[in-house]
């Protein structure tokens, strides 16, 4: 095996999710490609275009030369503009064009990953600028593709894979952002403890603790008398953390115990993906 063992988990998760996306969209008729997803301004076609576009960039393909229309009101930042180019350039593509490009991109990218000989700490170019380690890049792609698989599943009414390898990577990356959400964004006071109790296909309980100096840490131990306990299901947690839905829209799926004001501040800043 040429692939470093520490990279294989992300590669396997990416492969599972991107092949699931291919299976989801292959049978779609033309109109279904235009169905809306929870990604603001993006249809099923747009989500698949985004996946194709970023994998092409990871392959080193040149970016399309394309001017965006002025009426894309969901594009509100330079990062969003960068991402939108790969999406908008494919908005005129037919269903067969989309599925064939997706399949070809998966074949090319899978071959590249099978032949990956670099070490996990090798620096690689990241779409949009800058460099990250190869290990971080592969984790990011596994995370992104799994999240978009779930976007497509919700849009198409075909739930599944909420407990896959990609789900585990997504859970760990989203949990790593919680101390910042609780301390820096929501302003939890020193001595606070906030418990997140998540059920469903992927069950976990984590506590964010704020020490006397105001630093936040996260662990899996139980907290006695926490300041706040937030209970929800894994899919709702995912949708909130990825900015797909606001807390007030899923209030029936959230149980809040303890400091209501802190809980509301946490939920107001819960989205951690760009």
From TrEMBL:
<dbReference type="InterPro" id="IPR010872">
    <property type="entry name" value="MDMPI_C-term_domain"/>
</dbReference>
<dbReference type="InterPro" id="IPR036527">
    <property type="entry name" value="SCP2_sterol-bd_dom_sf"/>
</dbReference>
<dbReference type="InterPro" id="IPR017517">
    <property type="entry name" value="Maleyloyr_isom"/>
</dbReference>
<dbReference type="GO" id="GO:0046872">
    <property type="term" value="F:metal ion binding"/>
</dbReference>
<feature type="domain" description="MDMPI C-terminal">
    <location>
        <begin position="169"/>
        <end position="264"/>
    </location>
</feature>
<protein>
    <recommendedName>
        <fullName>Mycothiol-dependent maleylpyruvate isomerase metal-binding domain-containing protein</fullName>
    </recommendedName>
</protein>
<dbReference type="InterPro" id="IPR024344">
    <property type="entry name" value="MDMPI_metal-binding"/>
</dbReference>
<feature type="domain" description="Mycothiol-dependent maleylpyruvate isomerase metal-binding">
    <location>
        <begin position="15"/>
        <end position="153"/>
    </location>
</feature>
<dbReference type="Pfam" id="PF07398">
    <property type="entry name" value="MDMPI_C"/>
</dbReference>
<dbReference type="Pfam" id="PF11716">
    <property type="entry name" value="MDMPI_N"/>
</dbReference>
<dbReference type="InterPro" id="IPR034660">
    <property type="entry name" value="DinB/YfiT-like"/>
</dbReference>
């Amino acid at each position: 095996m040429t692939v470093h063992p520490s990279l294989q988990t992300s590669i396997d998760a990416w492969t599972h999710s991107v092949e699931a996306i291919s299976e989801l969209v292959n049978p779609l008729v033309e109109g279904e490609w235009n169905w809306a997803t929870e990604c603001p301004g993006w249809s099923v076609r747009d989500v698949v275009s985004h996946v194709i576009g970023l994998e092409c960039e990871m392959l080193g393909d040149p970016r399309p030369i394309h001017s965006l229309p002025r009426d894309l009101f969901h594009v509100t930042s330079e990062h969003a503009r960068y991402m939108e180019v790969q999406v908008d350039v494919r908005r005129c593509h037919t269903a067969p064009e989309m599925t064939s490009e997706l399949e070809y991109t998966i074949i090319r990218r899978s071959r590249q990953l099978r032949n990956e000989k670099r070490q996990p700490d090798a620096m690689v170019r990241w779409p949009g600028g800058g460099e990250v380690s190869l290990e971080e890049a592969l984790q990011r792609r596994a995370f992104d593709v799994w999240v978009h698989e779930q976007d497509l599943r919700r849009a198409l009414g075909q739930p599944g894979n909420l407990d896959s390898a990609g789900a585990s990577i997504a859970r760990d990356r989203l949990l790593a952002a919680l101390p910042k959400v609780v301390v820096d964004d929501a302003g939890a006071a020193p001595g606070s403890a906030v418990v997140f109790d998540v059920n469903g296909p992927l069950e976990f309980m984590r506590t964010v603790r704020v020490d006397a100096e105001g630093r936040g840490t996260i662990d899996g131990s139980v907290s006695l008398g926490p300041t706040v306990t937030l209970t929800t299901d894994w899919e709702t947690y995912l949708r909130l953390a990825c900015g797909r839905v606001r807390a007030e829209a899923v209030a029936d799926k959230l149980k809040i115990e303890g400091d209501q004001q802190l809980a509301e501040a946490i939920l107001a800043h819960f989205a951690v993906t760009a």
